[in-house]
Design brief:
This protein is an all-alpha fold. It is built from 10 helices and 2 strands; from the N terminus they run αααββααααααα. It has one domain: Mitochondrial carrier domain (Mitochondrial carrier fold, Alpha/alpha barrel). It comes from Oreochromis niloticus (Nile tilapia).
Length: 298
Protein backbone atom coordinates (compact mmCIF):
# COMPACT_ATOMS: atom_id res chain seq x y z
CA UNK A 1 0.00 0.00 0.00
CA UNK A 2 2.97 2.34 0.62
CA UNK A 3 3.90 1.99 -3.06
CA UNK A 4 0.35 2.70 -4.27
CA UNK A 5 -0.07 5.76 -2.04
CA UNK A 6 3.32 7.09 -3.14
CA UNK A 7 2.47 6.62 -6.82
CA UNK A 8 -0.93 8.30 -6.49
CA UNK A 9 0.65 11.26 -4.68
CA UNK A 10 3.24 11.73 -7.44
CA UNK A 11 0.56 11.49 -10.17
CA UNK A 12 -1.48 14.18 -8.44
CA UNK A 13 1.52 16.50 -8.54
CA UNK A 14 2.30 15.60 -12.18
CA UNK A 15 -1.06 16.83 -13.49
CA UNK A 16 -0.22 20.34 -12.29
CA UNK A 17 3.50 20.40 -13.16
CA UNK A 18 3.65 18.64 -16.56
CA UNK A 19 3.41 21.92 -18.58
CA UNK A 20 6.47 23.14 -16.68
CA UNK A 21 8.22 19.85 -17.47
CA UNK A 22 7.61 20.54 -21.19
CA UNK A 23 9.06 24.05 -20.80
CA UNK A 24 12.07 22.74 -18.85
CA UNK A 25 12.83 20.06 -21.45
CA UNK A 26 12.71 22.53 -24.35
CA UNK A 27 14.95 25.05 -22.56
CA UNK A 28 17.51 22.37 -21.68
CA UNK A 29 17.74 21.30 -25.33
CA UNK A 30 17.92 24.86 -26.71
CA UNK A 31 21.42 25.67 -27.98
CA UNK A 32 22.66 22.14 -27.38
CA UNK A 33 26.49 22.00 -27.77
CA UNK A 34 26.57 25.56 -29.11
CA UNK A 35 28.28 28.55 -27.51
CA UNK A 36 26.20 31.47 -26.29
CA UNK A 37 25.15 33.80 -29.12
CA UNK A 38 25.65 31.24 -31.89
CA UNK A 39 22.09 29.90 -32.00
CA UNK A 40 18.56 31.24 -32.33
CA UNK A 41 16.81 31.68 -28.99
CA UNK A 42 13.20 30.54 -29.21
CA UNK A 43 12.66 30.57 -25.45
CA UNK A 44 14.12 33.58 -23.59
CA UNK A 45 12.98 32.49 -20.13
CA UNK A 46 10.44 30.21 -18.49
CA UNK A 47 7.57 32.69 -18.90
CA UNK A 48 8.40 33.40 -22.55
CA UNK A 49 8.71 29.67 -23.22
CA UNK A 50 5.35 29.01 -21.62
CA UNK A 51 3.77 31.77 -23.73
CA UNK A 52 5.48 30.68 -26.96
CA UNK A 53 4.52 27.02 -26.66
CA UNK A 54 0.96 27.95 -25.71
CA UNK A 55 0.67 30.39 -28.61
CA UNK A 56 2.11 28.08 -31.29
CA UNK A 57 0.94 24.66 -30.10
CA UNK A 58 -1.96 25.49 -27.80
CA UNK A 59 -2.83 23.91 -24.47
CA UNK A 60 -2.23 20.45 -25.97
CA UNK A 61 1.39 21.43 -26.57
CA UNK A 62 1.84 22.36 -22.93
CA UNK A 63 0.57 18.94 -21.83
CA UNK A 64 2.69 16.87 -24.21
CA UNK A 65 3.96 13.68 -22.63
CA UNK A 66 1.32 13.76 -19.88
CA UNK A 67 0.35 10.07 -20.27
CA UNK A 68 3.91 8.69 -19.98
CA UNK A 69 4.53 11.37 -17.34
CA UNK A 70 1.75 9.94 -15.18
CA UNK A 71 2.92 6.36 -15.70
CA UNK A 72 6.49 7.39 -14.92
CA UNK A 73 5.48 9.15 -11.72
CA UNK A 74 3.36 6.21 -10.59
CA UNK A 75 6.07 3.60 -11.14
CA UNK A 76 9.23 5.60 -10.39
CA UNK A 77 7.98 7.58 -7.41
CA UNK A 78 5.75 4.73 -6.28
CA UNK A 79 8.85 2.55 -5.96
CA UNK A 80 11.09 5.38 -4.71
CA UNK A 81 8.82 6.89 -2.06
CA UNK A 82 7.35 3.50 -1.18
CA UNK A 83 10.82 2.05 -0.58
CA UNK A 84 11.77 5.05 1.53
CA UNK A 85 8.55 4.78 3.55
CA UNK A 86 9.36 1.14 4.37
CA UNK A 87 12.93 2.06 5.35
CA UNK A 88 11.63 4.93 7.47
CA UNK A 89 8.98 2.82 9.22
CA UNK A 90 11.65 0.22 10.07
CA UNK A 91 13.41 2.90 12.13
CA UNK A 92 16.59 2.87 10.03
CA UNK A 93 16.79 6.64 9.42
CA UNK A 94 16.66 7.49 13.14
CA UNK A 95 19.43 7.46 15.72
CA UNK A 96 18.34 7.86 19.34
CA UNK A 97 14.92 8.98 18.16
CA UNK A 98 16.27 11.75 15.90
CA UNK A 99 16.58 11.90 12.10
CA UNK A 100 20.11 10.95 11.05
CA UNK A 101 21.29 13.03 8.06
CA UNK A 102 23.69 10.41 6.72
CA UNK A 103 21.18 7.57 6.99
CA UNK A 104 18.39 9.58 5.32
CA UNK A 105 20.74 10.55 2.49
CA UNK A 106 21.77 6.92 1.92
CA UNK A 107 18.18 5.69 2.14
CA UNK A 108 17.00 8.38 -0.28
CA UNK A 109 19.78 7.59 -2.76
CA UNK A 110 19.12 3.82 -2.67
CA UNK A 111 15.39 4.37 -3.12
CA UNK A 112 16.17 6.72 -6.01
CA UNK A 113 18.37 4.18 -7.82
CA UNK A 114 15.62 1.53 -7.67
CA UNK A 115 13.00 4.00 -8.90
CA UNK A 116 15.22 5.32 -11.72
CA UNK A 117 15.93 1.86 -13.15
CA UNK A 118 12.24 0.92 -13.01
CA UNK A 119 11.02 4.12 -14.67
CA UNK A 120 13.76 4.71 -17.26
CA UNK A 121 11.90 3.41 -20.39
CA UNK A 122 8.88 5.59 -19.66
CA UNK A 123 11.09 8.62 -18.97
CA UNK A 124 12.81 8.05 -22.33
CA UNK A 125 9.48 8.18 -24.16
CA UNK A 126 8.27 11.15 -22.10
CA UNK A 127 11.36 13.16 -23.05
CA UNK A 128 10.93 12.34 -26.76
CA UNK A 129 7.28 13.40 -26.75
CA UNK A 130 7.86 16.61 -24.78
CA UNK A 131 10.66 17.73 -27.10
CA UNK A 132 8.57 17.16 -30.24
CA UNK A 133 7.49 20.58 -31.46
CA UNK A 134 6.24 22.56 -34.42
CA UNK A 135 9.22 23.23 -36.72
CA UNK A 136 9.13 26.99 -36.07
CA UNK A 137 10.02 26.50 -32.38
CA UNK A 138 11.69 23.08 -32.42
CA UNK A 139 14.91 22.50 -30.44
CA UNK A 140 17.03 19.37 -30.10
CA UNK A 141 16.55 16.17 -32.07
CA UNK A 142 12.96 15.63 -33.23
CA UNK A 143 11.43 12.17 -33.00
CA UNK A 144 8.13 11.45 -34.73
CA UNK A 145 6.29 9.34 -32.17
CA UNK A 146 2.50 9.26 -32.29
CA UNK A 147 2.08 8.47 -28.60
CA UNK A 148 3.49 6.46 -25.71
CA UNK A 149 2.60 2.98 -27.01
CA UNK A 150 3.82 3.78 -30.53
CA UNK A 151 7.10 5.09 -29.13
CA UNK A 152 7.73 2.05 -26.91
CA UNK A 153 7.00 -0.36 -29.77
CA UNK A 154 9.16 1.62 -32.24
CA UNK A 155 12.12 1.78 -29.88
CA UNK A 156 11.84 -1.94 -29.07
CA UNK A 157 11.59 -2.95 -32.74
CA UNK A 158 14.57 -0.81 -33.76
CA UNK A 159 16.90 -1.31 -30.81
CA UNK A 160 15.65 -4.24 -28.77
CA UNK A 161 14.89 -4.44 -25.06
CA UNK A 162 18.14 -2.68 -24.11
CA UNK A 163 17.14 0.28 -26.29
CA UNK A 164 14.33 1.01 -23.84
CA UNK A 165 16.92 1.61 -21.12
CA UNK A 166 19.07 3.95 -23.25
CA UNK A 167 20.00 6.98 -21.16
CA UNK A 168 19.59 5.16 -17.85
CA UNK A 169 23.28 5.89 -17.12
CA UNK A 170 22.13 9.48 -16.58
CA UNK A 171 18.82 8.60 -14.94
CA UNK A 172 20.43 6.73 -12.06
CA UNK A 173 22.72 9.58 -10.85
CA UNK A 174 19.98 12.13 -11.60
CA UNK A 175 17.32 10.44 -9.50
CA UNK A 176 19.67 9.16 -6.79
CA UNK A 177 21.13 12.65 -6.19
CA UNK A 178 17.69 14.27 -6.37
CA UNK A 179 16.12 11.62 -4.16
CA UNK A 180 18.89 11.83 -1.54
CA UNK A 181 18.62 15.64 -1.44
CA UNK A 182 14.82 15.63 -1.43
CA UNK A 183 14.09 12.98 1.17
CA UNK A 184 16.93 13.81 3.57
CA UNK A 185 16.03 17.52 3.65
CA UNK A 186 12.31 16.73 3.86
CA UNK A 187 12.74 14.44 6.88
CA UNK A 188 15.14 16.85 8.59
CA UNK A 189 13.03 19.93 7.79
CA UNK A 190 9.85 18.28 9.02
CA UNK A 191 11.56 17.45 12.31
CA UNK A 192 12.90 21.03 12.55
CA UNK A 193 9.46 22.58 11.93
CA UNK A 194 7.95 20.33 14.60
CA UNK A 195 10.74 21.25 17.06
CA UNK A 196 10.17 24.97 16.47
CA UNK A 197 6.46 24.43 17.17
CA UNK A 198 5.51 26.85 14.40
CA UNK A 199 2.52 24.64 13.62
CA UNK A 200 0.77 21.82 15.53
CA UNK A 201 2.67 18.51 15.11
CA UNK A 202 -0.06 16.90 12.97
CA UNK A 203 -0.85 19.99 10.88
CA UNK A 204 -0.69 19.70 7.09
CA UNK A 205 1.40 22.89 7.17
CA UNK A 206 4.33 20.91 8.61
CA UNK A 207 4.67 18.77 5.48
CA UNK A 208 4.02 21.76 3.22
CA UNK A 209 6.77 23.84 4.89
CA UNK A 210 9.24 20.96 4.82
CA UNK A 211 8.47 20.39 1.14
CA UNK A 212 9.18 24.04 0.35
CA UNK A 213 12.59 23.84 2.03
CA UNK A 214 13.35 20.56 0.29
CA UNK A 215 12.39 21.93 -3.14
CA UNK A 216 15.19 24.54 -3.15
CA UNK A 217 17.88 21.99 -2.25
CA UNK A 218 16.58 19.50 -4.82
CA UNK A 219 16.71 21.95 -7.74
CA UNK A 220 20.23 23.17 -6.96
CA UNK A 221 21.57 19.62 -6.59
CA UNK A 222 19.64 18.04 -9.44
CA UNK A 223 19.65 20.51 -12.36
CA UNK A 224 23.09 19.64 -13.86
CA UNK A 225 22.15 15.94 -13.79
CA UNK A 226 18.74 16.79 -15.21
CA UNK A 227 20.24 18.66 -18.17
CA UNK A 228 22.58 15.75 -18.96
CA UNK A 229 19.74 13.26 -18.57
CA UNK A 230 17.43 15.17 -20.94
CA UNK A 231 20.12 15.40 -23.61
CA UNK A 232 21.15 11.75 -23.39
CA UNK A 233 17.55 10.57 -23.65
CA UNK A 234 16.75 12.87 -26.57
CA UNK A 235 19.92 12.54 -28.69
CA UNK A 236 19.66 10.88 -32.12
CA UNK A 237 20.96 7.31 -32.38
CA UNK A 238 22.46 5.22 -35.18
CA UNK A 239 21.14 1.90 -36.48
CA UNK A 240 22.84 0.11 -33.57
CA UNK A 241 21.12 2.32 -31.02
CA UNK A 242 24.30 4.19 -30.06
CA UNK A 243 24.08 7.91 -29.38
CA UNK A 244 25.41 10.17 -32.12
CA UNK A 245 26.21 13.13 -29.86
CA UNK A 246 27.30 11.57 -26.56
CA UNK A 247 28.85 8.27 -25.50
CA UNK A 248 27.40 8.41 -22.03
CA UNK A 249 26.93 10.45 -18.86
CA UNK A 250 30.56 11.58 -18.43
CA UNK A 251 30.94 12.47 -22.12
CA UNK A 252 27.74 14.54 -22.14
CA UNK A 253 28.68 16.29 -18.90
CA UNK A 254 32.17 17.22 -20.14
CA UNK A 255 31.03 18.29 -23.64
CA UNK A 256 28.29 20.49 -22.23
CA UNK A 257 30.70 22.07 -19.75
CA UNK A 258 33.33 22.63 -22.45
CA UNK A 259 30.99 24.06 -25.10
CA UNK A 260 28.48 25.94 -22.96
CA UNK A 261 30.27 26.50 -19.65
CA UNK A 262 28.83 26.02 -16.19
CA UNK A 263 25.71 27.93 -17.21
CA UNK A 264 25.05 25.19 -19.77
CA UNK A 265 24.70 22.66 -16.97
CA UNK A 266 22.25 24.99 -15.25
CA UNK A 267 20.36 25.80 -18.44
CA UNK A 268 16.67 26.15 -17.70
CA UNK A 269 17.30 26.61 -13.95
CA UNK A 270 14.26 28.87 -13.60
CA UNK A 271 12.10 26.36 -15.47
CA UNK A 272 13.59 23.57 -13.36
CA UNK A 273 12.52 25.27 -10.16
CA UNK A 274 9.05 26.14 -11.45
CA UNK A 275 8.66 22.48 -12.37
CA UNK A 276 10.66 20.58 -9.73
CA UNK A 277 9.82 22.99 -6.92
CA UNK A 278 6.02 22.66 -7.07
CA UNK A 279 6.31 18.98 -7.93
CA UNK A 280 8.50 18.33 -4.87
CA UNK A 281 6.19 20.34 -2.62
CA UNK A 282 2.97 18.78 -3.92
CA UNK A 283 4.19 15.18 -4.15
CA UNK A 284 5.71 15.22 -0.65
CA UNK A 285 2.65 16.97 0.75
CA UNK A 286 0.21 14.51 -0.89
CA UNK A 287 2.46 11.60 0.13
CA UNK A 288 2.60 12.68 3.78
CA UNK A 289 -1.12 13.38 4.01
CA UNK A 290 -2.12 10.11 2.30
CA UNK A 291 0.10 8.15 4.70
CA UNK A 292 -1.50 9.89 7.68
CA UNK A 293 -4.96 9.15 6.30
CA UNK A 294 -4.12 5.45 5.77
CA UNK A 295 -2.35 5.00 9.12
CA UNK A 296 -5.51 4.04 11.12
CA UNK A 297 -6.25 1.23 8.62
CA UNK A 298 -2.88 -0.52 8.97
Amino acid sequence: MDFVLSGVAACGACVFTNPLEVVKTRMQLQGELKSRGSYHVYYRNVFHAFYTIGKVEGLVGLQKGLVPGLWYQFFMNGVRLGSYAIIESSGYIHTNGRVNAVKTTVAGAVAGVVGAVMGSPIYLVKTHLQSQATSSIAVGHQYKHQGMTHALVAIYRNHGILGLWRGSSAAVPRVSVGSAAQLSTFSSSKELVIDLQVFPANSWLVALSAGMISSVVVVLAMTPFDVVSTRLYNQPVDHLGKGQLYKGFTDCFSKTLKKEGLTGLYKGLGASYFRLGPHTILSLFFWDELRKFYQPFR
